[in-house]
Amino acid sequence: MSAEPRDIRDLARFLSQREDLGLDEVFLEGLTREQVLRAAGEARRGARQPSGLPSRETVGADPKERGSAEFPVPGVASASEVDLAGFEYSELAVVAESCQRCRLAKGRTRVVFSDGNPRARLMVVGEAPGANEDRTGLPFVGQAGKFLDLLLASVDLSRKDSVYICNVLKCRPPGNRDPMADEIEHCSPFLKRQIALVAPEVIVAVGTFAAQLLTGTNRPLGKLRGTVYAYEGVPLVVTYHPAALLRNAGWTRSTWDDFQLLRQVMDGS
Ligand code: URA
To answer: Is the domain 107-269 a CATH 3.40.470.10 member?
Structure first.
């Protein structure tokens, strides 16, 4: 087991699960005594509420005041906007990291919550993590991500400073298959809360799944693109997914036009 400080939370969860199972003996390698004691303390605190969710003390309000009679039960409940409505940004990321709300939790290496600047004017919403994203915990880091960075750079935007990036699904579908309807249903409340908290001035949805979810239609992307929509009052541009562009160079011109449209919306022109 690695002794990285960021592993402490995983370790705490592991210890908490063992405690739930009545197993109190555990062998740890590569951790300092201080790290083990800290993880054990976090596990004990975590065991007092449904695992993976921040304590009420931490989030600072009774769940009833958040519009939910109970915290969602991991592995059983479907996420609803009401469940997540009271969470602040950092709390939302923690809840997502331990989410067990659909089958994708079993196969994931990392939850892929976001990258970029949470105070950015522009939010990019993609489809779902692939293998590289699942390994690193960051969205759009593979070949499609490099292409996305180039497209953003073409309109003077960079992921580090001026863009916030996330996906409809936070966990990788096996073999990079398409997201399933129930997975989108379970996961999209995270995205909706993310949008509310980041409060971007403009959103760009890349690919069919993000475009259809945010426009609330099931029209094909080729028919959706070229128009500025509004998502909860936020201007929304839709375009092809960079991975699709890599397979179909014929869409490059349209994508270029979509990024020009995006730039115009951002410039207020
Ligand atoms: N494709 C996506 O839609 N999102 C990623 O994070 C990576 C590839």
So the answer is: yes
